[in-house]
Design a protein that fits this description.
Elements (H helix, E strand, L loop, with lengths): L1 E2 L5 H18 L6 H17 L9 H11 L1 H4 L3 H11 L9 E4 L14 E7 L2 E6 L6 H13 L4 E5 L8 H9 L6 E7 L1 H7 L5 H5 L9 H11 L1 E6 L10 E6 L7 H10 L4 E3 L8 E6 L4 E11 L15 E2 L5 H8 L4
Parallel strand pairs: 1-10, 4-5, 5-8, 8-9, 9-12
Antiparallel strand pairs: 2-11, 3-4, 6-7, 6-11, 10-11
Helix pairs in contact: 1-2, 6-7
Length: 336
């Protein structure tokens, strides 16, 4: 999950009108009015926010809305309804549309594990396991500095079951692997599609302004201003890890992980494991009612060579079950 911290202003204005209209509708007296109002609010929110308008029209979207409007589905209790909603999104041509609890409504299963961990699975082989691209990017920088200060000759980056996070932490890890500038891809909002009608060609892509500051506030501001933003990691002269690299993936390697995997694979770094999740969009939470909030994609993503990773994923160079990926990597690196 790739987060945006500020809502796109035109969408917010539309949602104010939607909320006002649905409040009157919910007061009409139907037993299912609150659930019906929630469904209509969720549909309208997605239709206003999803970047590519083609994704919220046509057969798949119509089937999705029919499912949500089914009286039997609307009569489910909160937990069953949330599950039914999220199952229904699986057939859509885009990811990241999910119904979540409002904060504090349910106890989560938050892990007390750190976001990044360093271990040594073999002689002079370091392994950096990323649970989530979150927390202070400096923590990722410190971990990579520890690898570079060691006598490690090889590094395994374990992204199995890593659901994503935010790009500043991924950039901190990437910075320790490459000195040259890296074009990390572009994000496109509804405003881009309203203006251009389709995805960019290579010339249009090159014209998308690069983000000047690699932080979420600057990212959100540029999306609001331009409708698109390109992430370019600047060149630098700091130390980098210059040994052998291997990446481990599985079907739950998602979102922020996927551009990193794609770009390193393009540079010749072997990827071992399973095809990644194919869930790479930028999304944001919108409140629906006191119980639920809706996670909605607000920007699509393209690699520098115009590949959409969402609903596609990345095929590994060596495809093995995730449980065997580390063993295969160690064998490749000569540790076994």
């Amino acid at each position: 999950m790739f987060h945006v911290i500020s809502r796109v202003h035109p969408i917010a204005a539309v949602l104010l009108l939607i909320t006002a209209g649905l409040a009157d509708f919910a007061a009409a007296g139907s037993v299912q009015a609150p659930r019906t109002a929630l469904v209509e609010r969720a549909i309208a929110t997605a239709e206003a926010a999803v970047p590519n308008p083609e994704f919220v029209s046509g057969e798949h979207w119509e089937q999705f809305t029919r499912t949500l409007r089914d009286p039997e589905v609307q009569s489910l209790n909160d937990e069953e309804f949330r599950r039914a909603f999220n199952r229904a999104t699986d057939s859509l041509p885009f990811t990241h549309l999910r119904l979540h609890w409002q904060p504090g409504m349910r106890e989560g299963n938050e892990s007390d594990r750190p976001a990044i961990e360093l271990s040594w699975p073999g002689d002079r082989i370091a392994m950096v396991q990323v649970r989530m691209f979150e927390e202070d990017p400096a923590v990722f920088t410190e971990t990579m500095n520890a690898v570079m200060a060691s006598d490690a000759e090889a590094l395994i980056i374990d992204l199995r079951s890593t659901p994503g996070g935010s790009f500043p932490t991924a950039a901190a890890l990437s910075r320790a692997l490459r000195r040259e500038a890296v074009d990390a891809g572009a994000f496109l909002t509804r405003a881009w599609f309203a203006r251009h009608g389709d995805y960019p060609d290579l010339d249009q892509y090159a014209g998308i302004a690069a983000l000047e500051e690699l932080d979420l506030a600057a990212f959100a501001a540029q999306l609001q201003r331009d409708g698109a933003a390109r992430l370019v990691l600047p060149a630098h002269d700091d130390p980098i890890f210059e040994g052998r690299l291997v990446i481990l993936t599985d079907r739950d390697t998602a979102s922020t992980c996927e551009p990193l995997v794609y770009l390193l694979q393009q540079q010749g770094v072997p990827v071992i494991g399973e095809r990644t999740a194919g869930a790479m969009l930028s999304a944001e939470h919108f409140p629906m009612d006191e119980t639920f909030r809706l996670f909605v994609p607000v920007a699509d993503y393209l690699t520098p060579d115009l590949v959409r990773l969402d609903r596609n994923g990345i095929r590994p160079d060596i495809e093995v079950p995730a449980s065997q990926a580390l063993e295969r990597a160690l064998a490749m690196l000569g540790s076994l």
